[in-house]
TrEMBL record:
This is Xylose isomerase. Its cofactor is Mg(2+). It is an enzyme of class 5 (isomerase). It holds the Pfam family AP_endonuc_2. Mg(2+) 1 binds at residues 230, 266, 294, 337. One of its GO terms (cellular component) is cytoplasm. It is found in: Cytoplasm. Residues 119-279 form the Xylose isomerase-like TIM barrel domain. Homotetramer. The active site is at residues 99, 102. It catalyses: alpha-D-xylose = alpha-D-xylulofuranose. It comes from the Bacteria. It comes from Limimaricola pyoseonensis. NCBIfam families: PRK05474.1 (NF003998), xylose_isom_A (TIGR02630).
Amino acid sequence: MSDFFKDIPEIRFAGPDSDSEFAYRHYDPDETVLGKRLEDQLRFAVAYWHSFAWEGGDPFGGATFERPWFGNGMAQAKLKADTAFEMFRILGQPYFCFHDADVRPEGESFAENTRALREITDHFQKKMEETGTRLLWGTANLFSHRRYMAGAATNPDPDVYAFAAATVKSCIDATHQLGGENYVLWGGREGYETLLNTDMGRERQQAGRFLCQAVEYARKIGFEGTILIEPKPQEPTKHQYDYDVATVYGFLKDFGLEREVKVNIEQGHAILAGHSFEHEIALARELGIFGSIDMNRNDYQSGWDTDQFPSSVPEVALAYYEILKAGGFTTGGTNFDAKLRRQSLDPEDLILAHAGAMDVCAAGFKAAARMWEDGRLEAAREARYAGWDTPQAKAMLDGDLEAIAARVEAEGIAPAPRSGRQERLENLVNRYL
């Protein structure tokens, strides 16, 4: 067992009037919202990599965190796991997520990596049985090691492709063994720095075949969870092939995978792509590929992915509103792909960052639920498009330009502009917050 979080109490719901720092004010997992327990609506998960593998470095400085499990041995990996599950007990969230490189020591070969992953997977399985914590999704780190500096699936070296494919197989196996509800493929470095040395057509075909092989293998071994792609623009490469939801959908259509693969959408990545979080969720919903989310935020004065814990109830509420329109989560959930600031050194900081984020999400979700139940926003939207519900308008879409032009001329149609009422709708939304 780990004593890293010694003397930190379990975080429990105490209500909005509580003065305790170690309490939930809005997140009551057993509260019923829209017919389901709040825990089942939000499906919180802790990201293993930022919480337990990140050392606090940035492009201008090295590690600032000192953790007793830092190191590259199996003993440290198991201590890290014991500490992680102790944090899960304190927070009471139902899920966690991991990359293979977060949880096992890095070996000298694929065989060593696989043996270590299998050993820690068995350790996880025991801890999960003891605590009831479940796996939301697993994934492979195909971007940190120097072998992946030119990508994994898109690498010009076929041996790197082979190493990456074998690694994904081992990670799907681990996810399947642990009852993971999803498996995520995150591109990382699937992109290019310059077209001067890049065969874009070849790389795109390699990426498509890699994804097909991953899906085929997962189904072959009986993995019934959802396969997810996480869109990300730029960072770290100049151009990523999985830039945003629209780009990913075009890629999936091209390779016949639009019914097999969905998306895991991160708030920070949406902003880097020039979109809002709710835009990406709404588009994924309309395209039928919405799966799960990584909940974090960027510093809007910085031009990169700062992975901060969410702190804005209005932002979170708009995102959950679009998720409610999608029918809520099925296998997906709310993963905190967020990390402490490098000056936040204490064990309490790690606990309270998550607890505060869970409270923000709960408050935002309940605001979204009030908005959804009230129905006025949807009624206003339906009224704006009501003209398209008439038989004449529907027939126009099935007709041709000549018939439309003849009708406009015969009826003397001269449409008058109508207000979009944006500010009034923004005022309406603010009533629920």
